[in-house]
Protein: Glycosyltransferase family 4 protein
Amino acid sequence: MPYLYHLIAFLVSALVVLSTTPIVRKFGLQSGLFDIPDKRKVHQHPMVRLGGVSIFLGSLTALLVVWWSGGFVDAKGAILPPSEEYEIWGVTLGGLAFFLIGLADDLFGLSAFTRLLVEVIVASLAWKAGVQIAFLSMPLIGLVNLPPWISLIITVIWLVGMVNATNWIDGLDGLAAGVSAIAAVVMLIVCLFMGQPAAALIAAALAGGLIGFLRYNFNPAQIFMGDGGAYFIGFTLAGVGVVGLVKTTAVTSVVLPYLILAVPILDMSAVIVDRLRRGKSPFKADKRHLHHRLIGTGLSHRMTVVFIYSLTIWAGSLALAFAGIPYGRIYALGATLLLGYFIWKVWQQITKMKKEGN
Structure:
């Protein structure tokens, strides 16, 4: 059965997260490891921030089950090349390292400089281990091999940037988990279509875990993923983009990760530019993110999250069409209509709030 192991990875990860998240939540409450509300945060009650533990366990367990059941040998009906098997563990171990950085921040509150320094070091090690953007397929130019030092810089910026972009959108119940789940599913489809079964296995495991986590994280949330979860998810998505998309020789491959992850990337970029324009540190937390702005217009918590989901689905559908997926343009048209519907709903709600305010 084609792609059986990808389905196994998805289901195992989802089941592990569904079963372990209540245990992690109970442990966090008993241990006092929860987040206290403040003026920047939307939640009104203390919330456990250790959900990333369950997401990581789900993804790791899924990959181990596939490995033990022979999935690395039969990922698409043939022996998975050792280099691709190595890439799976490279991304997984890199995700573990970033998970530990985020977990340390959750528990001990690291400074912005310390976090960034350790992130750059770990990303550099991931590059050394093979998770690297070694060449780019450029339109009208073709294949461009990058000098090692340029490859290192581009790879580190991509990995560290996506880690922080994912962490920065984790501001509403279910937002980061849902956006990342949509991105992981799109990456799974594109990787399978482009003949990258190893990267697709990672995406399948992550997607299953995130969808399982939404059972407890969607509004009203019972638990947060915390920095540990956000860092792990961000690195894993970025890693799949490197080993599954950018490394292919198709000209479209260079833009696919950016399309799929457009929402967190553009949100982070806009916030950084805005902070610098106002003379603020780009690392100084504020309420200038897209979700904060939408909440500020009077949108409900759920409508804000669902609207950003629709943006992510739309960007992902463009990636499907751009990659040449069968019926990709139809999916893009459907996603455009869906986005249009939610834009209309948002406009209706904002107009209603303004009238009530007058």
Remarks:
- Residues 75-79 have pLDDT under 50 and may be disordered.
- The radius of gyration is 20 Å.
- Residues 54 and 231 are 13 Å apart (CA to CA).
